[in-house]
Design brief:
- The protein is mainly alpha-helical and 197 residues long.
- The model has no long low-confidence stretch (mean pLDDT 93).
- The protein has a single domain, classed as Up-down Bundle (Fumarate Reductase Cytochrome B subunit).
- It has a two-stranded antiparallel ribbon with strand order 1-2.
- Helix 1 runs antiparallel to helix 2, helix 2 packs across helix 3 and helix 3 packs antiparallel against helix 4.
- It binds protoporphyrin IX containing FE (2 copies).
Length: 197
């Protein structure tokens, strides 16, 4: 490069619009929260549905992995929502028709709700089974959580049922969300996906 050519320090702007993010973008931290949660959620879902097929000592490792991942997702979701309070996401672009705005908001709200309710349900389920996160299933393998309730079989059954229900609804929601992102990027060719990259 010629010594006099300035090195670009900001993203390219065409007629005043950020060419990489024509529809605005989420903050760096919001993107970090989003993309860190994605693999963790896939791990929680994958371990959740496979635990029942795992035997002996490995089963306890699966519980510890599933439960620890789930609780990390909860902490990330709470921190993310707190951050969202400080740093509002970019407004949806004007070219989005009302039904798409409604769909995007509905799916985002449901995803946030699931990221919080699902780990809590799992946590209360294990406790209602009389099986707190301690010993072999300690949080991250070494942090024991105190037992805070007595085992309650009926409550455990109901909580487990609700946890399973959301566990199976989540992939549907995620598929709709990813489908929406692909639709916007590949078919509608707008800047929606770029908002999160
Ligand atoms: C976002 C986080 C989580 C997701 C997506 C998730 C998902 C799942 C799924 C899909 C299942 C299988 C349900 C079924 O086949 O009936 C499951 C089972 C289970 N989850 Fe979670 N879970 C999460 C967090 C947690 C947490 C934090 C705990 C406990 C602290 C937990 C405890 C359990 C237990 C005890 C089971 C039953 C496993 C078995 O014995 O079959 N989960 N979870
Ligand atoms: C699998 C787990 C995922 C979860 C739980 C999730 C959750 C969310 C949530 C809650 C939001 C709203 C953020 C906010 O407004 O504060 C969001 C936005 C977004 N997500 Fe995901 N997401 C996931 C995966 C993906 C994937 C795989 C893609 C890309 C293919 C994607 C693309 C986007 C985009 C583009 C936005 C911004 C939408 C907008 O412009 O408002 N997400 N996601």
């Amino acid at each position: 490069m010629d010594q006099t050519t300035p090195v670009p320090t900001a993203s390219v702007r065409i007629r005043g619009v950020d060419a990489l993010h024509p529809d605005g973008q989420y903050s760096r931290l919001a993107k970090w929260f989003h993309w860190t949660t994605v693999p963790l959620l896939f791990l929680a879902l994958a371990t959740g549905v496979t635990i029942r097929f795992i035997k002996d000592d490995a089963k306890m490792d699966f519980y510890a992995l599933h439960e620890s991942t789930g609780l990390i997702i909860l902490v990330l979701a709470l921190a993310r929502l707190a951050w969202r309070g400080f740093s509002a996401p970019p407004a949806l672009p004007d070219h989005l028709p009302p039904h798409m705005r409604l769909a995007a908001h509905a799916v985002h709200h449901l995803l946030y709700a699931a990221l919080i309710v699902q780990p809590l349900l799992g946590f209360f389920t294990t406790n209602a089974y009389g099986f707190p996160l301690a010993g072999e299933t300690a949080f991250l393998g070494f942090i024991d959580f105190p037992k805070f309730m007595e085992a309650h079989e009926t409550l455990a059954f109901v909580l487990h049922w609700a946890h399973s229900l959301i566990g199976w609804a989540l992939p549907v929601l995620i598929a709709a969300h990813i489908g929406g992102a692909i639709y916007h990027h590949a078919l509608r060719k707008d800047g929606t996906l770029l908002r999160m990259l």
